Amino acid sequence: MTEHGIGVSVKRKEDRRFLTGNGNYTDDINRPGQTYAYFLRSQVAHAEINGVDTSAAEQADGVLAVFTGADLAADEVGGIPCGWGLTFQNGDPMIEPAHPALAQGKVRHVGDAIAVVVAETRKQAKAAAQLIEADLNQLPAVVDMKKAIEGGTLVHDEAAENTCYDWAIGEKADVDAAFDEADHVTSIDIVNNRLIPNAIEPRVALAEYEAASGDYTLYTTTQNPHVIRLLMGAFVLQIPEHKLKIVAPDVGGGFGSKIFHYAEEAVLTWAAAKVGRPIKWTAERSESFMTDAHGRDHVTHAELALDKEGKFLGLRVRTLANMGSYLSSFAPAIPTYLHATLLAGVYTTPLIYANIRAVFTNTVPVDAYRGAGRPEASYLLERIVSKAAREMGIDQVEIRRKNFIPSDAFPYQTPVALQYDSGDYEATLSAALEAADVDGFAERKEAAARDGKLRGLGYSTYIEACGVAPSAVAGALGARAGLYESAVVRVHPTGSVTVFTGSHSHGQSHETTFAQLVSEQLGVDFEAVDIVHGDTSKIQFGMGTYGSRSLAVGGEAILRAANKIVDKGRKIAAHILEASEADIEFADGSYTVKGTDKAMAFGEVALAAYVPHNYPHETLEPGLEESAFYDPLNFTFPGGCHVCEVDVDPDTGVVDVVNFTAVDDVGRVINPMIVEGQVHGGVTQGIGQALMENAVYDENGQLLSGSYMDYTMPRADDVPSYHVSTEETLCAHNSLGVKGVGEVGAIGSTPAVINAVVDALAEKGVTDVPLPASPQNVWRALQEAGA
Amino acid sequence: MATVSMTVNGNAVAADVEPDTLLVDYIREHIGLTGTHVGCDTSQCGSCCVMLDGDSIKSCTMLAVQAEGAEVTTIEGVADNGEFHPMQQAFHDNHALQCGFCTPGMVISAIDLAAKNPDIDEAGVRRGLEGNLCRCTGYHNIVKAVLAGAQAMKG
Ligand code: FES
Ligand code: FES
User: Fold this and answer.
1) How far is the CA of A293 from the centre of ligand 2 (A)?
2) Under an 8 A CB cutoff, do B42 and A17 touch?
3) Interface test with A, best of B26, B99, B113 (most A CBs within 10 A)
4) pLDDT above 80: residue A417
5) CA distance A119 to A339
6) What is the mean pLDDT of residues B107-125?
7) Which of B137, B143, B146 to mutate to test the pocket of ligand 2 (most atoms within 8 A of CB)?
8) Does B81 map to a domain?
9) CATH code at A232?
10) Which of A122, A301, A489, A675: disulfide with A561, CB 3.0–4.6 Å?
11) Residues B70 and B105 in one domain
C-alpha cells in the first residue's frame, strides 16, 4: 500500500478551491453580454390556459423578449422526453403525455412555467413577469393518489383513472398459494413520505449561442452532462451533438435531483439563439421547491406470509407510486425496476408478487432521490419484518438471521429478477450488534426511563442494487439509453497523467478517489494525476453519476484504460530494453526485465512514446493515451446493518436519535474517509425522512412545505455523531471488487429509525408510527393508543 | 443608484448599486467575489455568511447600503497568503466538506463560533451551527472539524 494508494484515507484534492472560495459553480460563471431569465409560474395546480398576454411585459424596462408555450410550439420545439418506457401488465405501453417546456393548453402543477422573460437584469425580468396576464380557467386539482385512480378529474385526458401504468412482477397465483399455507400473515400499510431533495446549490442554467459557428453552450447544474446533451439535443431542440456543448462545472450536491433534463435548460438554450445573447437563470429556493423533481411518495399495502418458525414464505405488495404531473426523465423506472426488484432484500423469501400502479397528480414530477426506489423497498421490508417478529414473539435479530441468504449461497437468484453476486449479511449484522453495544441496551433503557424517556432500539438489514447498470438488462427493462461509462487516460510526455471521465462529481470526491486508483495502477505520484469531468467538449462520452455507479462503473472504466496504458508501456519497454514482452514485469511504476536489473521507469517509457527515436514503429503508434468503455455484467449489491437507538419524550412526542450505528459492505474501500463521509450524509438524509422531512400538498394542490421555514431539513443539532464502519465482501464481476457507497446511508437508515421509535412506544400499545415521526405524529400515535 | 463603499478582505471597494441591493449580491455581482453563496431566499441556509465588523452575518439578510463603511471578510479573505486558517485546515483534515457549496458559510460561522467560545463542546457546536444547512456531510465531520479548529485557534 503506497501513501496515496488504494485503501488510504487520502485528503481531498478538491478541498483547497472550495475552502478558499475558488469553486466554480454555474452561478459563478458570467458571460459577456449576459442577460437574465425569469419564469412566470402557475400559482394554481390545474387550469386551462385561455390566453397569455405578454404585451405589457414586452414593453417593460430592459426587456429583450418574452416567450410562451405558443412560441415554442411555433418553432417546433419538442417536449421534455422521458428516458424509460414501461408497460401495463397486458403489454400495452405506459401512458406518456406530452411535457411542453413552457405550458401549452393547461398548467398541471403549482410552479409549471407559463412564460419566460429575458431582460438586461434579473430584477427587470422579474418585474416584467408580473405584467404578464395569464387568463386561466381553474380546474379541480388531483392530489391524493387513492382518489386519483377513481377517475373524475384527469391530469391528462389520455390517462384514464390518472394511471400511467399498472405493472406487476412475480407469479401472483403461486404467491397467493403460499399465503393459503401460511401459519401467520403480517400486513402493513405504509405511506412513504414525499421528499424534496434540496441540494444546497439551487439549479442554475446559462446558455449561449454563437451565430458565426452555430455552436451552443449550456452551463448547467447537472449530474450527467452527456445525458442532457442527448435528451435536449436530440429530442427537444434537434441540435446535433457536435454543435452542443454542455458544461457542468462544480455542482453543489445533486442527490438525484440534478440527473434529469429540466425545461429551463431547453428554454434557455433555445432562447439564447433567439435573443442572440447569453441568458442566465438561477432558481430561487422557492422555485427549487416547486420545480426540482421530488422523491419517494408511495402508498403501499404489503403482506408477509410466515411459517410457525418465522420463516418467510411469501410477500405480496401493492403500491401506488406518484409520478406527479409529467414524467420526469427516469420516473417510471424508480418504483418498478429499482423498487419491486429489491423486495427480496437480504432474505430467502421464495415467492414475491408486487403490483405497482403509477399515478398522475397535479404535483411536481417525482423521480429519483438518493436511493431511488430502494429506500422505499428497504423501508417496507424492514418494517414488515419487524412487525412480524413482534406479532409472533420472535426476537428482532433472530427473525432476520433465520431468513438471511447464507454467505455460501452466492450467486443467489432472487424471485424478483436480480442475481446477487456476493454478500455476508451475518458479518455486517454481528459487527453492528457489537458496535451498537446491543447487550447494554436494557440497562440504557432503564436509565432513560428514570428520566421519563421511552427508549427504543431498531434494526434494518438491507440490500441495494447499485452500479447502475448493465445496458443490456436496462434496455430489456425499458431504458432508452445505455448505462456504461467511459474513460480516457492520457499520459503526458513527462509522465504526469490527465484522466477524462464520464462520471460527474458533485460532492463524491472523484478527483481524489480516481487519482488514487490511477496513481496505484500506474505507479505515478498522486499529485501527478488530475481528473477532468463535466464538459462534453473535453470528455469523450459519459452517462454520469447516480445509482452509486461512479466507482463501480466509471472507476472500472478508468482502471481498464490504465491497464491498456500499462500494456502499451510494456511493449515500448521490451523494445528499448531488448527483451521479449513476456519477460517484462511492471510494478511500482517501473518496467523490469524479469530476473535482471534492467529497468525503465514509467516516466521514461512515457517520454519514449512521445519522442519515439528508438521505438517499435512497425507495430506500435507513438503517444500514450488509451480509452475504455465499460459496461458491467451485473448490478453491484452493497448491503449492511443499521442499528438505531432513540429516546422518545412521551409528553411532547419529540424523538431524539441517541445512537446510530451503520456497518455497511460496500465492497473494496478505496478511501475510507470518503466512504464514511458518504454514509454520514446518507444516514442524515434517512433520519431526515424518518423524523422531519415531508412535502405536504393541500387538497387544492398548493405546496404547503415550500420553503425552509415549512420543510424541515435536518440541522446539526437534530442528529448525533455516528458509528460507521465497513465489512468487505468483494463484488464478483468488476476487477476492483467495489460496490458503491453513495446511497447506502439513505437506504438503510430510515427503517432502523422508525423501528426504534415503534420499539420505544410498544410498551404504550403503539404498533405503528407514520413517516415522518414528527412530534405531532408521535404524540398522536400515543394518544390513539390511549397512552 | 447609490455608491456603497466598504472594506472587503482588507481592500477598499466601492460600487454604484440600486438601493435595494442585498449585501450578498453586492459581494458576488459587483465586487466579483463568488465564494459567498446563495442557497435560499428565507435566511435559513447560511451559505451566504460573511464576517461583518467581527460577527458572522447572513449577507442575504442585509442591504449593501447597511454595510456602508463596514469591514467585511468573505471566505476569500480567510486564508493568510495561501496558508489555510486553522479552521480551513481542520475542515480539510476532517473531510468536513463534500460538494463545497455550504462550506464558505460554514467556515465563516465556525470561525466566529470558535473565536467567541474557545472551549466549546460538541453540543455547543451543534447548537451554534444551527443556522447553517449542509445536505452532504450529515454534519458529523463538520462538528469534528469545528472542535479541532477551535482547539487549533487557541494556538
Ligand atoms: S442565502 Fe440562505 S441564509 Fe443567506
Ligand atoms: S458540503 Fe455539500 S452542502 Fe455541505
Assistant:
1) 19
2) no
3) B99
4) yes
5) 44
6) 98
7) B137
8) no
9) 3.90.1170.50
10) A489
11) no
* 3-state DSSP assignment of residue A719: coil
Q: How far apart are CA A323 and CA A304, in angstroms?
A: 27
Work out the end-to-end distance of chain A between its first and last CA atoms, rounded to an integer number of angstroms.
Answer: 58
Number of domains in chain B: 2
Atom of ligand 2 at shortest range from CA of A253: 2
Q: Tens of pLDDT along A202-241?
A: 999 999 999 999 999 999 999 999 999 999 999 999 999 9
User: Do the interacting molecules here have an ipTM over 0.95?
Assistant: yes
Domain carrying residue B38: 2-74
Give B130's contacts in chain A (Cβ within 8 Å).
715-717
Q: Is the pLDDT of residue A603 over 60?
A: yes
The protein residue with its alpha carbon nearest to ligand 1, atom 3, reads: B43
Cα distance between residue A71 and residue A263, in whole Å = 14
Which of A10, A11, A19 should be substituted to probe chain B, the one whose Cβ sees the most B Cβ atoms within 10 Å?
A19
Select the residue of A23, A253, A674 nearest B95 (Cβ to Cβ). Answer: A674
Predicted confidence band of residue A42 (pLDDT cuts 50, 70, 90): very high
Q: What is the pLDDT of residue A552?
A: 92
- Let me know whether B61 and B117 are in one domain: no
Q: Residue A573 belongs to a domain with what CATH number?
A: 3.30.365.10
CA A148 to chain centre: 27
The pLDDT assigned to A745 comes to: 96
Residue B96 lies in a domain: yes
CA-nearest residue to B137 within chain A is: A681
Tell whether the model's pLDDT for residue A786 goes beyond 90: no
Which ligand is nearest to the Cα of residue B45, counting in written order?
1
Q: What does the pLDDT read at residue A697?
A: 98
Parallel/antiparallel/unpaired status of strands A412-413 and A419-420: antiparallel
Whether residue A401 sits in one domain with residue A389: yes
Inside any domain, residue A724: yes
C-alpha cell belonging to residue A350: 421464495
B108 and B54 within one domain = no
Dist. CA A665–CA A686, nearest whole Å: 18
From the number of C-beta atoms within 10 Å of its C-beta (0-12, 13-18, 19+), residue A640 rates as buried
Minimum Cα–Cα distance from A201: chain B residue: B39
Distance B102 CA to ligand 2 centre (A): 5
Query: Can you give the residue range of the structural domain that contains A313?
Result: 295-469+634-784
Q: Residue A717 C-alpha to ligand 2 middle, in angstroms?
A: 16
